[in-house]
Amino acid sequence: MKDTPAPTLTPDGRKIGGVLMEMKNITLRFGGVEAIKDISFDIREGEIRAIIGPNGAGKSSMLNVISGFYHPQEGEVWFRGAKRPSMKPYQVARLGIARTFQNIALFDGMSVLDNIMTGRLTHMKSGLFGQALWWGGAQREEVENREKVERVIDFLEIQHIRKTPVGRLPYGLKKRVELARALAAEPKLLLLDEPMAGMNVEEKEDMSRFILDVNDEFGTTIALIEHDMGVVMDLSDRVVVMDYGKKIGDGTPTEVRSNKAVIDAYLGVAHD
Amino acid sequence: MHVTLGKPRESRTNAIRGTEEPAREDKPLANQTDAGDGLHSIPALLARNARKWGAEPAYREKEFGIWQSWTWIETAEEVRALALGFLALGMAKGDYVAIIGRNRPALYWSMVAAQSVGAIPVPLYQDAVAEEMAYVLDHCGARFVVAEDQEQVDKVIEVQDSVHCIEHILYLDPRGLRKYDHTRLHTLKDVEAEGRAAHERFEAELEARIAAITYDDTCVMLYTSGTTGKPKGVVLSNRNIIETSKNSAEFDHLRHSDEVLAYLPMAWVGDFIFSIGQAYWTGFCTNCPESADTMMTDLREIGPSYYFAPPRIFETQLTNVMIRMEDAGRIKKWLFDTFMAHARKVGPAILDGKPVGGWDRFKYALGDLFVYGPLKNTLGFTRVRVGYTAGEAIGPEIFDFYRSLGINLKQLYGQTEASVFITQQPDGEVRSDTVGVPSPGVELRIAENGEVFYRSPGTFVEYYKNAESTASTKDAEGWVATGDAGFIEPESGHLRIIDRAKDVGKMADGRLFAPKYVENKLKFYPNILEAVVFGADREMCTAFINIDLTAVGNWAERNNLAYSSYQELAGHPKVLATVQAHVEAVNKSVAEDEMLSGCQIHRFLILHKELDADDGELTRTRKVRRRIIEEKFADLIEALYGGKDQVYTETEVTYEDGRKGKIKATLDIRDTAIVAPGGQRMAAE
Fold it and tell me: Rounded to an integer, what distance in angstroms lies between the CA atom of residue B633 and that of residue B645?
């Protein structure tokens, strides 16, 4: 592990620790298209890290690289001080990385509770047989996991829809259920892909509060992609700005806001 | 944590102990020997319950999806720990302790713990905006605030600059509050732990404080919502609360095995009587829902045997049932319609124990099996033995619907100043148009102008720091003016309420004007949520209407009517036509009453916004504030009387977070058909 920055305190009193994840010179290609070009940045423990950029900048691809869904052709992903080999997404999940999706990926026919329970799957050890008979260890395990899930339900204030099938919920609540499922996994690193897309102001405020509370209450490191600049600037400690697959800015919201390249990317200048 | 604060306070409490303790110590010991009469405070009742029903549940709360329960012994222990903690924080006798939050056991315990140390709990409406809270906190001079969560703590911190009396803020739910400055902020858990740790130091003090509470000490102070002016602090003594609880519990044969669901605002006198007064007197169990949104599910899971709800809740539940029946299959719908028709015919009679034929009884039993039973189960009313509604008039159809199902729903009439009960309906004498006979211990008197006066053991002590209002409400002999006009039916002895006495007036030509009488008739239609009728000193009556978004929205959906907002739906011509039909039907019914035939509505409009407590148009208990509405919508009233067909208006609205905005609208005004008034004019009195 290279030079670890000393833990610092944010103005509001949260502790930001050492580097949790580091992306080194990542390049991702789909055939001839370079979605990500030689990008490096790090995510430090306990921080809220945003990745922003115009449409098609490669933000979601970046998140998919972190979550192990895409394998970059070049570059290395370092997690907790060790180089992460090429992994399947479920293996990544076991490392303690959970995510939500841009276009909600829940089980529509299942209840909110069952959906969130699926977030606990990586923590379950009992076999198919034991679970089917719901006997002994399997039963104990389910009770333990249910308790964890109930705490998440309480935290996100969705008690009233506990038994409601997800398919019947409005969009804003589905987003919250998805966050609940990710939280139920008790992740070290939480990846949020546009958590506020398509929400109204009130829903955005609620979601922002939940994100801040998650970070504050559980100390979860959060990496998020978001379009709403106001939200990003308010929520995050540091921001990576991407455009056409390249990193054009990296720093605190204030630094990024005054960055010439970033302003150009958002206001639009002719690309050569 | 409280070392620096504890020191000086300690000397203060010692001073109290030093001077007053010896004199008071003998009395309570004597009292404890006779269990019947020594019970003159809530903490004393708690001690008795812990002895008598120690292992039985006193509180339940649903948390993490499971009903957690506390027995009377556990409750007594929690309250004791809190009280010791309060002492450690320096809470003195006579301090005011504001309690803000939804119904949760820990907040009820805080109230009783405050009483134990001789302080006075002041529950506040948790949905009040900071500004309203500031007035009450300042008026009572609260030194301590017990808040439920971050939302409430934020409001208290916001008003702290203008309200200087607040010394400590205690909170229940630590979420989001970790980063706050904790010099004057404490979690209830820490306070409890502090109390337990310091029990040797404060045990004797606590015993002495509990023993020193007299029957005429203040039990609680409740702020009335106030349809006019600023809220007033109603001081209720232990005598008021305990006598009233005792009488009313006997009246309805409440038992310690009863269950209630505590879901109505803690600041409302009813909740205090049901969840503390009667609960501690009879020893029944108080159940707290998981959150405001889960109330209906929790109601069903608990199946309370003693239930209270304002008419609005019964209306909403009925509307929901009807909406769902619209979607039911043909057979189910037929079953429902057939058996409900039968229930309407014989249900109330069976409930009242009147003679009903064998065949009808059989058919009713069959209906109970197929329809009533399952429906009651869905509504959570399977075990309701005593149900009450009050606060507003309830529509006869709604009232009869529940009674015909076999639910013993009754009406009562009361107010904060009376510790709730003035009149109530005895079993077997229940009607939708009266409010019953005087409650045990209550004397009634009707003044010449029709205003109802009462005198009872529950009559309040005074309005806090407001001798003037106290004097104008309560006379030297203890008679209290209710402010309502009514009369006692000679044949049954039941009280009937017509309207607020000061709202009853005359029209320009001298005919009687009773707005609420008409408004209630309008509100009985599911489509109409709220109505405000004008006409005092005018030539004719006019009205503002608020539509019910659930009912009308559902109707719109069924009829393929597109709408995107409340405002748009409210302005739709078809909605206007429907409401017009309702208004005309009401006119017909009003015309039948000779005295009030002048109150027929000539013109009306549908308001572009829902009347809201946040905008000051309703009280927190959702009563219409006429004066404020008249002022605020003066332009609309002018238009109603001006003969125009349309009016443009701009209205300021307050959002839930306290920010303000404006909505603009052009409203249609409709003329309605009037049933020929029989030329009947009220003779001058």
Answer: 17
Q: State the ipTM, two decimals.
A: 0.77
* Chain A partners within 8 Å of B297 (Cβ): 160
Which residues in chain B are closer than 8 Å to A160, comparing Cβ atoms? 290-291, 293-294, 297
Q: Are B42 and B276 in contact (CB under 8 A)?
A: yes
- What digits encode the pLDDT tens for the residues A46-69? 999 999 888 888 888 999 999 888
- The residues, any chain, with a CB within 8 Å of residue A93's CB and separated by 6 or more, are A122, A185
A1-96+187-272 with A105-186: one CATH topology? yes
* Banded pLDDT at B13 (limits 50, 70, 90): very low
8-state DSSP, B680: -
**Tokens read off for B476:** 């030297």
CA distance B643 to B513: 21
The architecture of the domain spanning A105-186 is 3-Layer(aba) Sandwich (3.40)
What the block records as the tokens of A203 is 């829903």
Q: In chain B, what are the helix, strand and coil shares in percent, each to the nearest 5?
A: 45, 20, 35
Q: Which residue of chain A has the CA closest to B657?
A: A202
Q: Would you say A46 and A16 are in contact if contact means Cβ atoms under 8 Å apart? A: yes
Boundaries of every domain in chain A? 1-96+187-272, 105-186
One-letter amino acid for residue B130 of the chain: A
* CB within 8 Å: B179 and A13: yes
Of A159, A213, A216, the CB nearest to B294: A159
The predicted-structure confidence for B582-631, as pLDDT tens digits, reads as follows 999 999 988 887 777 888 999 999 999 999 888 888 887 778 888 889 99
CATH code of the region A1-96+187-272: 3.40.50.300
State the greatest distance between any 2 C-alpha atoms of chain A, in Å, as a whole number.
66
**Which member of A146, A151, A159 has the closest CB to residue B290?**
A159
Question: What distance in Å separates the CA atoms of residue B1 and residue A253, rounded to the nearest whole number?
Answer: 37
Nearest CA in chain A to B295: A160
